Amino acid sequence: AQSVTQPDIHITVSEGASLELRCNYSYGATPYLFWYVQSPGQGLQLLLKYFSGDTLVQGIKGFEAEFKRSQSSFNLRKPSVHWSDAAEYFCAVTSGTYKYIFGTGTRLKVLA
Amino acid sequence: SAVISQKPSRDICQRGTSLTIQCQVDSQVTMMFWYRQQPGQSLTLIATANQGSEATYESGFVIDKFPISRPNLTFSTLTVSNMSPEDSSIYLCSVEGGGGLFYGYTFGSGTRLTVV
């Protein structure tokens, strides 16, 4: 069965520091992979997605993610974090149906 | 991509009562989805609602507990019936984000439900 693991429940970084949020998935074939962000009191917003092709994908708000098949990972990165990036981040996977499997989320705190 | 208005944004309800959550989309969509986000947990798909047909429920969710209506291509409701404290969650509706189901969902802002 498909699964998504986000090993870090909470991460704290200083403003201006780099960020990497981890996501590991379990799926036999090439999955469709997504990162979403949920700001307090808000719904989820799509940051970026990977289907095929270039394994480094660019998203909104300066985020990028790299698909590494050998490691079954799809980690989210940002070179310099802003205070407004404080939110909860969800990785999700689908095999190609409308049923997405979401990770349990990583809550990001940004220190001024 | 579609814009979703979901209401209420939050509510506190007594156990044994029911709450109906509304989801309005600014464009016509074929499929609408209802998710539950329990405290400290991930999102779980409750059901898929297509206009003109019965909703399709995921394992662990039943129509008597979570009846869904889909009267047209821009609107849906989810009712949480006979509530207990275990139903305290965030409930989210979503639709495909444009370009197809594999291009990501667009989500409403959610309904934060507390059952006391």
Key terms:
heterodimer; A: 112 residues; mainly beta; four-stranded antiparallel β-sheet; 0% helix; 52% strand; B: 116 residues; seven-stranded mixed β-sheet; globular
Distance between the termini of chain B: 37 Å
**How much of the residues of chain B is beta strand, in percent?**
over 45%
Overall shape of chain A: it is globular
Shape, principal axes of CA atoms of chain B: globular
**Can you give the mean pLDDT of chain A?**
92
Number of helices of chain B: 0
Strand content of chain A: over 45%
In total, how many beta strands of chain B? Answer: 11
List low-confidence stretches of chain A. Answer: none
Query: What is the CA-atom radius of gyration of chain B, in angstroms?
Result: 13 Å
Largest interface: A-B, 22 and 28 residues
Average pLDDT across residues of chain B? Answer: 92
Structural class of chain A: mainly beta
Q: For the report, how would you describe the main beta sheet of chain B?
A: 7 strands, mixed
How would you sum up this structure in a few lines?
By secondary structure, chain A is mainly beta. Chain A is built from no helices and twelve strands. The radius of gyration of chain B is 13 Å and the shape is globular.
Commentary on this structure:
The complex is a heterodimer of chains A (112) and B (116). By secondary structure, chain A is mainly beta. Chain A has strands spanning 3-5, 10-14, 19-21, 24-26, 32-38, 44-50, 56-58, 64-68, 73-78, 87-94, 101-102, 106-111. In chain A, the strands form 3 sheets. In chain A, strands 2, 5, 6, 10, 11 and 12 form a 6-stranded mixed beta sheet that branches. The N and C termini of chain A lie far apart (41 Å). The model of chain A has no long low-confidence stretch (mean pLDDT 92). Chain B has 116 residues and is mostly beta strands. Chain B is 0% helix and 51% strand. In chain B, the strands form 2 sheets. In chain B, strands 2, 4, 5, 6, 9, 10 and 11 form a 7-stranded mixed beta sheet that branches. Chain B has a 4-stranded antiparallel beta sheet with strand order 1-3-8-7, with no helix packed on it. Chain B starts with a strand and ends with a strand. The model of chain B has no long low-confidence stretch (mean pLDDT 92). The interface between A and B is medium-sized, with 22 and 28 residues.
